[in-house]
Amino acid sequence: MTIVASSGSYVWDGDGNRLLDFSSQMVNTNIGHQHPRVVAAIQAQAATLCTVAPQYVNDARSEPRD
Fold it and tell me: What pLDDT, on the 0 to 100 scale, is given for residue 38?
């Protein structure tokens, strides 16, 4: 199955079928696909520093967790 879109607890396949996503191993179980706050956080981080090798420190890795 090819997933072409997702929103909340649903995914759409390449044939346009909307399917309820029962994937319990993924974070979408708790927050849903395409959650606006997660998307905004990813966009903000990508605009600041998109990728960095794991051995390097950066602000995102050193900020305190709430």
Answer: 87
